[in-house]
Structure formats: structure tokens, C-alpha cells
Amino acid sequence: MSGTIKTIMMVDDDEDFLWQNRTQFESAGFKVETADSLVNAKELMEQINPDLAVLDMMMDENDAGVVMAHLLKKKFPDLPIILVTAMTRETGMVLN
Q: For residue 66, is it left (φ>0), alpha (ψ between -120 and 50) or beta?
């Protein structure tokens, strides 16, 4: 990777998910900043200028990822955001 190191903001309440993905992205040359809740993500958003955000859709609150995406887009309109989830039948959603 040439030039400035790109920063990825990763937000998920699953500690293992954060660790596994941080390891992969850092080995590819990215800087990774993580938060494990909506509250911590809001604080992190004020401290960094991410190049990409990867957000868990459902954390401490069912819509936490969507709320965070909205806040990030208000502050960084051109920021690419990836929403991830591991929804199951327990949520009422059936994915075929």
C-alpha cells in the first residue's frame, strides 16, 4: 500500500469478531480503530477521521448500527460504510 495509511473504524459488540478482523486488516496494512458499543463508537467518531466504517447492525440496541451509520454519514458524507450482522431466526427475520 502506498501513501497514507487508511483507517478503518470497526464497531461490534463481539470481541472475537473485532479481534479477527482487526488482525486481518492490520496485516493488509490498514490502521484499525475499534469500539464495542454505540456509546463508545460515538466517542471514537469524535477522535478519528476514518476512511471506512464496518458496523455491526445489532449491538446493545437493535438499531445501533443503523444509528451509527446515520451519525457517521452526517459527519463524513463520503465515508463508505459496511453493515454486518449475524441475524438469526430469533430476530424474526428469515433469510433464505
A: alpha
Which amino acid, 63? D
Answer for the pair 11, 17: CB distance below 8 angstroms, yes or no.
no
pTM, rounded to two decimals? 0.84
Residue 2 has a pLDDT of: 57
Predicted pLDDT at 1: 47
DSSP the chain: --SSPPEEEEE-S-HHHHHHHHHHHHHTT-EEEEESSHHHHHHHHTT---SEEEEESSSSSTTHHHHHHHHHHHH-TT--EEEE----GGGT----
Q: Grid coordinates in use for 90?
A: 430469533
11 contacts: CB under 8 Å, gap ≥ 6 = 34, 35, 36, 37, 38, 40, 41, 44, 53, 54, 55, 56, 59, 65, 68
